[in-house]
Amino acid sequence: MGIYTKTGDKGKTSLFDNKRVTKDDIRVESYGTVDELGTFLGLAKNYVDQELRERIYTIQNKLFTVATNLATEDQSKVAHRMKEEDIKYLEDTIDEYMGRLNDPTGFIIPGSNISSAYLHVARTVCRRAERRIISLTGVAEVDPLVVKYVNRLSDAIYAMARYSEEEQRAVKYD
Predict the structure, then answer these.
(1) Sequence ranges of the domains in the chain
(2) What is the pLDDT of residue 167?
(3) pLDDT at 41 exceeding the cut of 80
(4) CB neighbour list of residue 148: distance below 8 Å, 6 or more residues apart
(5) Which of 10-24, 80-94, 158-172: highest mean pLDDT?
(6) Where does the pLDDT of residue 1 fall: very low under 50, low under 70, confident under 90, or very high at 90 and above?
(7) Alpha-carbon Rg of the chain, whole angstroms?
(8) Which CATH architecture has domain 16-73+81-164?
(9) DSSP code at position 59
């Protein structure tokens, strides 16, 4: 069985609830950016220690729930939902990794090694995903826990990236 359906050849795609939309629809942009985020986290996962690798794997798995929510217009047809415990997991991750830093305040130059660099790229993609999701909330119903999760996720990725830095070079404004 081939993966091509030819149904997208004219610039349209199907959502999970079978509604057809253009491929540049804000809903498609939203879950597409979440997909991009999961892919960058997959890349970063190859350069971190086992503990971080497991956290990233858990987050990547949860991003499929986020994408499912975003890819379904009819909210009554959403098969899997975000939970407060998902947000709590991210908050615990933030507290854990920020707590390991000597001086977690102030801006740093990101990317003192490959693992922190990829995590910082993932963080910026996460922030873009959040912006796309906020745009979607202006025209469609989006589960508030999805918005909250992605907001917290950018902070969690930031905390993991800061923890992964080999050196904390502060930004110097000249």
Answers:
(1) 16-73+81-164
(2) 87
(3) yes
(4) 82, 87
(5) 80-94
(6) low
(7) 18
(8) Up-down Bundle (1.20)
(9) H
